[in-house]
Amino acid sequence: MKKKRVLIFPAGSEISFEIVNALKYSKFVELIGGTSISDHSEFVFKELIEGFPYIDHKDFLKFLNQKIFEHKIDCIYPAHDSVSVFLSEHASEIPAQVIITDEFTTKLCRSKKATYEFFAGEDFIPRTYVSVNDVDHFPVFVKPEIGQGSQGAMKISNMSDLVRALEENHDLIICEFLPGMEYTVDCFTDSDGTLRVVKLRDRERIRTGISVRSRSISTDSRVLEIANHINSRLKFKGAWFFQLRRNNNNDYMLMEISPRIPGTMGVSRNSGINFPMLTLFTFCAEYANGGGYYLL
Fold first, then answer.
1. pTM exceeds 0.70, yes or no
2. Least enclosed by CB within 10 Å: which of 115, 258, 279, 294?
3. Extended strands (E) in 80-194
4. How distant, in Å, are the alpha carbons of 56, 187, 188 from that of 193?
């Protein structure tokens, strides 16, 4: 069987490194990194394509497609939320298999505001405030509508600080403050849309939005209920995840959803489920073997 040549972009993200660790020993793939800047990826990838324009550059797609032909790329694995959106938007223009779900789901998940509006009325959606005039209780929590790595997110304890934060950034969402434990839920949906795996893990220590200390814990019925409901409303394919945090009543509240590999999914991988590999097999149908999959 010919090995699939898989481009991971951007190659220097923690998401990329998790994908690499999940696939690097596979006899089915050859990994190629793609990067716009000089970073740690040069120490990780034997084959690295440098000089990529940023995705908002007018020539990014032209450059990408040129490298696909030059390096005989079969699949592209996005390793950043904005890259996932771009690739889902332009999947029909790219001569390689893009390992990301459909454009609607990817774009909706990229916006926390759109996510909360889409699931409005569900009991796992935290309270949000349209304006400062609606805030009747402090502290509150503000975060950018579109963002990652906890950039711009902060706890606000009084009205003057809230007004100042909104003056500096008009795209902030005002949410109820959730004081409880934070969790990530690793999920896998097959090509038929059936949710096959739901694994809960805690986020004991977080750095730049990525959990750097996490452990698998028992997945309770409420988490399963939320996961199944999200899966029924959106179209996922392969690995995805969502984050929860407990409120003052100890109820799970949704923080965000993402249709990609999380950086700390290695916790689940080392427990026996290789989400990046399963996702690749799901998108590359010729790997299928009588309804099952070749596993590592």
1. yes
2. 294
3. 97-98, 128-129, 140-144, 154-156, 172-176, 182-189
4. 31, 12, 9
